[in-house]
Amino acid sequence: MAYVIEGRTGAWELVIGLEVHAQVISNAKLFSGAATDFGSAPNSQVSFVDAAFPGMLPVINRFCVEQAVRTGLGLKAEINLTSVFDRKNYFYADLPAGYQISQYQQPIVGKGVLDLDMPDGTVRTVGITRLHLEQDAGKSVHDQHPAKTFVDLNRSGVALMEIVSEPDLRSPEEAGAYLRKLRSILRYLGTCDGNMEEGSMRCDVNVSVRRSGEPYGTRCEIKNVNSVRFVMQAIEFEARRQIEVVEDGGKIVQETRLWDTTKFVTRSMRSKEEAHDYRYFPDPDLLPLVLEPAWVEGIKATLPELPDEKKKRFIDVYGLSPYDAGVLVADQERAAFYETVAKGRDPKIAANWVTGDLFGALNRSGKDIAESPISADALGGLIDLMADDTISGRIAKDVFAEMFETGKPAAAIVEEKGLRQVTDTGAIDGAIAAVLAANADKVAEFRSGKDKLFGFFVGQVMKQTQGKANPALVNDLLSKKLKE
Ligand code: ADP
Ligand code: MG
Q: How far apart are CA 19 and CA 231, in angstroms?
């Protein structure tokens, strides 16, 4: 079912395209040797090039180019062996050169694809239009002085990859899935840390609405949204706003808007600038960037196994559902953790414990997998105790909680608390006899045909044994006793 928004006059479809600015992981800037560390003292990482002193010349950072190519390959995109750096001219206090070095008509990476893993297990393929390299601007700081604005140029010249999607997204959920998937791929590749709070991944959101089957409507662009949740909220709000305008007989004007994270509305920022407003032209300080095919092939050979391939392997090799496989591979560390747990064990049981109990406990305590109080080997140890019938699945849940709390190994907790499963038939028979004696009326009802009471007896016997009786044995012995 397609996602639509019901207006007063009928249903509307959403059309969304995202432009993501991803900060390249690199020790140095795109055209200078200055450092790129986040959170350093203002203006402590600025070279003469970054401050645009007259006569300074940019020198391309080979590693940043490699990172862009690696990302392009990860997005299964065309790598353009010749690309061109252009000047994008505009005036702003945090842009000392008066232009940004970017790529316009000849970007380093062309068309690619990104597969979205939707919650119902289906896959939606979204087109990537292009990826180009550009410099970041500095930062204007408005909140340090009542009457003055300060400029911090640490970010000036840091390499960004602008990754532009086709207008293929159709709902806030798809936009969210796109951003999460893109972030996951960038992290696997090691080309961007994907940290939206620190601004190393920022998103411009283009939204328009139309009647199903009609051509695309006029879009508005919401600038610099910095979390997946905000992107989804902004799309929803903006689409409703546009629908209202059109249904009231108005026209959408193409413009740049801002997402207000406290009022939950988008506000007009400026009318949309056109490409010709920027007077793009090839930067005369830089030659066209020409890549050797062998160099590109060399980078291709070092790509890691990416989320889609890993997901496919998890489905094929471990027999996991597409959903579980998708959850596990979203993060490289989580996937590696799972593989350690699954090694030599039942892969589906391992997946249930990792995605269910462990991820649940980590989420509740706000912990990352790297901070998990239970290591992969320790979780494997717990699963082994169930597999060899030392403990029941029911008791295992308690042991797990204790492990998460204390970091102790499963076997130690089981010994310490005497949680070993009772497989001694004599002991179980004793418990059964006690339960049947105490519930003579129910035994009579059961024997006269009230089968449903069986569960009640099982529950009582388990209670009698503090949950330690082997459930299969209890079932077995109990049904024999009741038939006597
Ligand atoms: P600009 O630089 O003007 O923002 P780009 O072509 O670089 O233009 O990016 C346009 C973005 O807007 C792309 O992500 C594209 O998918 C998206 N887009 C284009 N047309 C529409 C539309 N009618 N509705 C929604 N998004 C659109
Ligand atoms: Mg744009």
A: 12
Which SS3 state, helix, strand or coil, does residue 109 take?
Answer: strand
Closest CA to 321 of 343, 347, 342: 347
Q: 350 with 374: CB under 8 angstroms?
A: no
Mean pLDDT per 10-residue segment, the chain (484 residues): 91 98 98 94 97 96 98 98 97 95 98 92 93 97 94 97 98 97 98 94 97 95 95 97 96 92 86 80 97 98 98 97 93 97 97 97 96 97 94 93 96 92 86 91 90 90 86 88 84
**88 in contact with ligand 1, CB cutoff 6 A:** no
Q: 22 CB contacts (<8 Å, ≥6 apart)?
A: 71, 160, 161, 162, 163, 182, 186, 191, 192, 194, 200, 201
Residues of the chain with CATH 1.10.10.410: 425-483
Kindly give the number of the ligand 1 atom that is closest to the alpha carbon of 166.
Answer: 16
Ligand 1 contact, 372 CB (< 6 A): no
- Pocket perturbation via mutation, ligand 1, pick of 16, 19, 161 by most ligand atoms within 8 A of CB: 19
Which class does domain 425-483 fall in?
A: mainly alpha
